[in-house]
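Folding follows sequence. Below is one example:
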Amino acid sequence: MAYTAMKSMARQGIKAVVGDSFSPSMCFHSRYCHGHFIYPSPYLFPERFIETLARKAREYGCRVLIPMHEEGFVIARYRDRLTPFLKVPLADYDQIMTLHSKDRFYTLAQQLGVPIPKTYSVSCEEEIEEIAGALDYPVIIKPRRAHGSFGLSYVYSPGELSKVYEQLTHRLGFGAEEMPIIQEYVPGTKYSVCMLYNRGELRAKCTFKFLREFPIEGGTAVLRVSVRNDRMEQIAQQVLDHLRWHGIAEAEFILTQDRGPMLMEINPRFWGSLYQGVASGVDFPYLLYRMAVDGDVDPVLEYPLGVKTRWLWGDWRALCDYLRRPLSQYRMLLDYLKFYRRDVSYDDFSMDDPLPFVVEMIYPFVSFLTRGTFNPVERGSEYDREV
C-alpha cells in the first residue's frame, strides 16, 4: 500500500517522505522515496508516535499526512495535535470505529437494511450453547476488530462451536467487551468496492473482482481485475452517505448465486489492493492528496474494465495453498509461471525500481529473526496476539 502511494505521488512530482515502525521497509529502499524515518509503535507509544510525526513533518516541510493502515486510527484520535500545520484527510475517530468494530458496523447495516450475513453477538460463552442448535452450519467466528483472515475460525457443527469459540477467545486473550461475533458462512465470489469521499460526497470509485487471494480464505486479493457492479456500489454508497464519510474506504462483498451481493465489511483505511485503482486510472492516493490541498477534486467515476493487477510476492506465497485445492494443479502451476505477463501490471515488482521487491521478500525473515514471528503486524496492535 505505502509503496503504491509513494510511487503515485512521486510520479505526479510530489516529494514523498515515508515513516515506518520497522526496518527494512520497501519504501525506504525505493528511488521514489524523498526521505524516510522510523517512528515509535503507534499502539504501544501513541503519544511518542504523534510527537515524532509532528517533528518530522516540520523537519521535512510536509503539508499533508496520509496514513496507510490502522496507525490512521491513532492519528484520527490525536488529530488536533497535527492539524495546526498538517492536512489530515481522515474521517472522525468515532466514524472510523463505527466501521472498524464489527458489532457496531453490522448493527448499522441492519438499521439501513443492506444485505449482510446473519450475524450473532454474544457477551459470554454461556450464550453459545443457547444458539448453537439454531445455526445453519458452517459458521465463522470473527474477532470484533480485525482485518483479513486474522483470528477467523470455521465451525462445521454445533458440537464444535463452544469448544472452538472458547479456544479462540482464550488463545487471543479477548475480554468481555471483545467477545467475537458468530456469522453464517456465505459462499460466492469476492469483490471490493473502493471509494473516496469529500465531506459526505462521493468523489471516486473503483470495483474489482478477486481472482486469487492470500491467505486463500479471507485474505487480500493478490490477482484481480477491474469490473463494475452497480448494486454493490449502491450498497456501499448507502452506508457511506449515511455516515457523511470523509476520506477513503473499501467495501468487501461476496456475490452469491441466490441472494445477490452480501456486504461483508467496510474498511475505513487504504486496502491491500490499492494498486488496482491506480492501474485502472483511479489514483486514490493522489486524489486524496489533491483533495486535502485544494479542498476538492473532480469526480472520477468511470474507469476501464478488464484491467488486471498482481501482488507478485503475495501470489507466490499463496501458491502452496492453491496447489492443495481440488483443482488442476498443472493448470494452476502454469498460470503461476507466467511471471511477467503483458496483460498484467504489478504492485510490487518494477524493472526501474527493483530493490523494494527484494526487501519485500526478505522482510518476513528479518521479522522472524528480530521479533520471533513471520507475522508482519505491529507490536501492541490488536493483531499482536499469538494466533
Observations:
- Residues 39 and 302 are 38 Å apart (CA to CA).
- The longest strand covers residues 201-214.
- The domain at 118-184 is CATH 3.30.1490.20 (Dna Ligase; domain 1).
